[in-house]
Design goal:
Helix 7 packs across helix 8. Strands 3-2-4-1-5-6 form a 6-stranded mixed sheet. With 235 residues, the protein is an alpha/beta fold. It contains 8 helices and 6 strands. It starts with 10 loop residues before the first strand and ends in an 11-residue tail after the last strand.
Length: 235
C-alpha cells in the first residue's frame, strides 16, 4: 500500500488448520472434525511469523473478530492469539461467534469428496450439460450459492459499518475472520462485489491468512491485498 493508504483498516481472513478431512478432501461443513497435530503446528507457525505486537497482524489494532461456531475454527483462534490476548479481547466484547461465517452447509454432500459428489449426481441424472459446480449448483439438502451470498453480505455490511468511521480518523480498525476454506473464498468474492459464480479461482491452505482492505481509503472500493510489507519487529 502507498503511504497514504498504509493505515487503511484491513480484514484478515484465517483458515483453520489441517484436519483429517482436509487431508482426504472431504467436504466438512457442520461436522466437528478436530485439528491434527500438523494442523496445530501450521497455525502456530503462522502465528509466530505474522501475529503479535509490531508484526503484520497486531491484535492491539483489532476492532473486532468474527469466528465460525465450529470447534476447529475456535481452536485456531486460540492458537493464533494465545489465551491471555484472547481473554482480553473477549472481555472487551471484541469477539463474536457467528454462523454468518460458518462453512458452507454441504447437506447431503457432507463427508464426501467433490469427485464422489459428481459421480453421485451423475447416477441421479444431474449435470448432463456440465459437471457439478458448487458456485452455481450449491448443495442438495444444504445451502445454495444464493443463501451463502445472503449471509455473507449481511456480515460484510456489519464489518463495513464498523470500519467506515476508521477510514477517516485512522483509528485501529482491523477485523479478523477465522473460518473455513470454501466460506472464506466466498467471502472474498462478495467483498469484491463479484457474483458467486464468477470465474475467480482462489486457493487457501490450511492455517493460512489472507488480507482484504479498501482502495483509496474508500468504503465503496473494497479490495484484495495481493502483496503486503512486513513491519520490522521492535528490538
Amino acid at each position: 500500500m502507498s503511504d497514504q493508504n498504509a493505515g487503511t483498516p484491513r480484514v484478515y481472513i484465517a483458515r483453520h488448520g489441517e484436519t483429517e478431512w482436509t487431508i482426504n478432501g472431504k467436504c466438512t461443513g457442520k461436522s466437528e472434525i478436530p485439528l491434527t497435530e500438523n494442523g496445530i503446528r501450521q497455525v502456530e507457525g503462522t502465528r509466530d511469523v505474522l501475529v503479535g505486537p509490531n508484526k503484520l497482524i497486531d491484535p492491539a489494532k483489532f476492532a473486532h473478530i468474527f469466528v465460525s461456531p465450529r470447534q476447529r475454527a475456535g481452536d485456531t483462534l486460540k492458537l493464533l492469539l494465545g489465551e491471555t490476548e484472547m481473554n482480553e479481547l473477549s472481555d472487551g466484547g471484541k469477539i463474536t461467534v457467528t454462523a454468518d461465517i460458518a462453512e458452507w452447509d454441504y447437506g447431503d454432500y457432507e463427508g464426501i469428496t467433490p469427485k464422489e459428489i459428481r459421480a453421485r449426481r451423475k447416477e441421479n441424472g444431474y449435470d448432463k450439460e456440465r459437471p457439478w459446480d458448487i458456485w452455481v449448483d450449491g448443495c442438495e439438502g444444504g445451502e445454495s450459492a444464493e443463501e451463502v451470498s445472503t449471509r455473507l453480505d449481511s456480515l460484510i455490511e456489519r464489518i463495513q459499518k464498523l470500519q467506515e468511521p476508521r477510514l477517516q480518523d485512522r483509528q485501529a480498525g482491523d477485523v479478523l475472520l477465522v473460518a473455513h476454506g470454501h466460506i472464506l473464498r466466498a467471502f472474498t468474492k462478495r467483498w469484491l462485489k463479484y457474483p458467486m459464480d464468477s470465474p475467480f479461482t482462489m486457493m487457501m491452505e490450511p492455517g493460512a491468512i489472507g488480507a482484504l482492505s479498501y482502495a483509496h481509503r474508500s468504503i465503496s472500493e473494497p479490495s484484495i491485498l495481493i502483496g503486503m510489507g512486513f513491519p520490522l519487529g521492535a528490538d
